[in-house]
Write a structure and sequence with these properties.
Layout: H1 12-22, E1 64-70, E2 73-78, H2 106-119, H3 123-129, E3 142-144, H4 153-164, H5 168-171, E4 175-177, E5 189-191, E6 196-199, E7 211-214, H6 220-224, E8 232-235, H7 236-247
Parallel strand pairs: 3-8, 6-7, 6-8
Antiparallel strand pairs: 1-2, 4-5
């Protein structure tokens, strides 16, 4: 079964533009009250005959907090400023620098989506993405009957092995322990992307061995993040829904 969605002209430039627009970074910043949770009373006054004055002490004009006092004699310690113990950071990251306000035209988004779908049927792009594979055993695109979604995971894997041929080893997610210091920083494990199964609106598959997306929720990032040509398997119902989407038909 060959569909026109797999013959769509591939526009790498527009796909790259959309991927860049869709990029997200987890925002982070310091607490708004970091370095300010103390009783420091602002700058020390250096005038004479003023209560709590720093006159004649040889002290710099930095905010200080009081640890103890005896009469008009104070035991001060610098606070709040970046070079003081427990003070705020000099130039901390701010939430505003992570806010991305990039937009993309609807027509460009559509071109990018169908370009990335078309690339999943192109041997040239698949071999470029998976450089360890020199030649494909089976011809793309990989379209399966909707009956596949009703089978058990063991039977699905068995059928995928037949359909994908030598692409099967790179199609299943494999988790491994990261080499390096990332193990100490909350990212001990890493995983390959694996393949993606695109299913229809009324179909359902639950597995953690590969990604599953419904045709009406499919995005450019699902197919082209990290390069065009991801291993993708489509059900017949998903192909029909994508054809209607390309023609602008509403079911």
């Amino acid at each position: 079964m060959k569909s026109k969605i797999f013959e769509y002209p591939i526009r790498e430039d527009i796909v790259a533009k959309v991927i860049e627009t869709k990029k997200k970074q987890q925002p982070y910043s310091n607490s708004p009250v970091a370095g300010k949770q103390h009783s420091a009373k602002g700058l020390i006054v250096h005038a004479r005959h003023v209560w709590r004055s720093g006159y004649g002490r040889g002290q710099s004009r930095v905010p200080r907090k009081i640890f103890s006092r005896r009469g008009s004699q104070f035991n001060w310690q610098g606070a709040e400023v970046p070079h003081a113990k427990g003070g705020m950071r000099a130039h901390p990251p701010k939430i505003t620098q992570f806010v991305r306000d990039l937009k993309i035209n609807k027509k460009e988004l559509k071109i990018a989506l169908f370009s990335s779908i078309s690339a999943t049927a192109s041997e040239k792009y698949i071999l470029k993405k998976y450089s360890t594979i020199k030649k494909l055993d089976k011809k793309a695109p990989f379209i399966v009957s909707s009956d596949l979604t009703k089978k058990k995971t063991k039977d699905i894997l068995s059928e995928l092995k037949t359909i994908l041929g030598n692409l099967y080893p790179v199609s299943i997610k494999e988790k491994s322990i990261r080499a390096g210091k990332g193990k100490l920083r909350g990212r001990k494990y890493k995983s390959n992307a694996g393949m993606i199964l695109i299913i229809g609106k009324n179909e359902n598959v639950k597995t953690g061995l590969f990604d599953v997306r419904k045709a009406n929720e499919l995005s450019v990032s699902d197919l082209a993040k990290g390069g065009l040509g991801r291993v993708a398997v489509y059900t017949e119902e998903a192909v029909k829904e994508l054809e209607n989407k390309m023609e602008g038909k509403k079911k």
